[in-house]
Structures are given as C-alpha cells and as structure tokens.
Amino acid sequence: MQKFLKLTFAVFMMAVSTVSLADTGVKLGVVNVALLLEQAPQAKSATASLEKEFSPQQAELKSLAGKLEKQQADYQKNKSVMSDAQKVTKEREISMLTREIQRRRNDVQELLNLRRNEELAKLQNVVNEAIKTIGKKEGFDLILYEGIAYTNERIDITNDVLNHLKTVSTKQRSEFNK
To answer: Where does the secretion signal sit in this chain (predicted)?
Structure first.
C-alpha cells in the first residue's frame, strides 16, 4: 500500500511539474557554431595573427623553392656538357635540397597546426561565453548546437551571438587603443 502511495505521489509531482513547465513555456535556441567560428571578428583576428606569425617561415620556404627550381633548371640546361661525376654531384645537391624543403615544410605545418588548435580552443571558449551571456540575457532555457535534423529559423540565435561577439571585439579594440 505504501508503494502505491509513493508511486501515486511521484506521478502527481511529474504531472504538476509538466503542467508548470508548459504554463511558463520553454525558450529554446540553436546556434551554428561553425558559422560563428568562421565569421566572428575574433576568428578573423586569430587568422591574421597566425598568418603574421608564420609569414617568415613561409617566405623562407618560398625562397628555398625558388632556389630549387633554379638548380633544377641549371642542371637540365647544363647536364649535356657535365661529366658523370658532376651530374651525380648536382643530382645529390638537388635531392638534398628537396628533402630539406620537405622537412622544413612539414615542421612549419606541424607548428602551424599546433598554434591553430590553440587559437581554436581560445575561440571556442569565447564563443561559449557569448552563448551563455546571450542565454542568460535573453532568458533561454536551452540552447543547442546546430547539428539537428530540422531547426526553425525562429529559434536560431546564431546572429545574436555573432553580433555579441562583434560588440565584444569592438569594445576590446577601443579599450586597447586608449
């Protein structure tokens, strides 16, 4: 008998909570995080920063590639008048330079990927904070990341979050310039 009363009470409480939830209405929102990570001013700033950070290495690789092209062109032009020993020496030089360029390219790419992941992690934190701020400010009960089969545009708050990120970025820049 006691079990029946407990079960009845539990069902009653669930019904009351469902009714009160339905009375207040649940405010839902959806955000497209990929779009935010692509279009947020903070993302563009991070991309520009990475390009600036790695431009010396890119310039060095470009210079080495130019040097390799020149060596290959010279070899092709002069190989008919070279001795066999000179050909072997020149081919080794070209091969060593090719390997050096590939090694440096791999090193730069690995370092760039590490830095990109660091910047992406920072950006994801900024986006998550913006989503929380918008959620609290506008009284959302639940905000989901996009990846859902269907979303009505009415509950898509991606532009609200993007505008918030733009405002935060503008505010940070104006404070930096003071």
So the answer is: 1-22
